[in-house]
């Protein structure tokens, strides 16, 4: 038999311990890549010049013979007459309405009578009358 020395016994142990270290050193650790550069701000777009807009004055249209004639009035009756019909309808509806609509209709009828007496135009008077009704419906004579 052969005698082995201590160095011969330690060599395989040392070699088995060092081989993985050499292998790791040879492959090395992967290093992180540097981050990509930040995008630079794009230069502002320069607007393209456009041709100036030419304004041409309108040519007035000559009025025709039919346009200069008096407009035809329809609907007959005066403003006060149509408001008086509305006021009468409000008073009549108030007689049969439950409270609080009865009170609202009587107040609207009073406002209507004042507007009719003053000769106020129907659109302006109807706005006041509708506000006095507080949600109660307008009679058909007022529409």
Instruction: Work out the strand percent.
Output: under 5%
Total E-strand runs = 0
Order of helices and strands: HHHHH
Distinct helical segment count = 5
The major pleated sheet works out as:
none
* Rough outline: elongated
Structural class, judged by helices and strands? mainly alpha
How many angstroms does the end-to-end distance come to? Answer: 132 Å
Question: What helical percentage do the residues reach?
Answer: 40-55%
- Oligomer classification: single chain
Mean pLDDT: 75
Q: How large is the radius of gyration?
A: 50 Å
Are there runs of 5+ residues with pLDDT below 50, and where? 72-77
Summarize the structure.
Helix content is 52%, strand content 0%.
Write the layout of secondary structure elements.
Elements: H1 6-27, H2 65-68, H3 79-96, H4 101-118, H5 122-133
Kindly list the characteristics that best describe this protein.
mainly alpha, 0% strand, elongated
Structure description:
The chain is an all-alpha fold and 143 residues long. It has a domain of 52 residues. The protein is 52% helix and 0% strand. The chain is built from five helices and no strands. α3 runs antiparallel to α4 and α4 runs antiparallel to α5. It is elongated, with a radius of gyration of 50 Å. About 4% of the residues have low confidence.
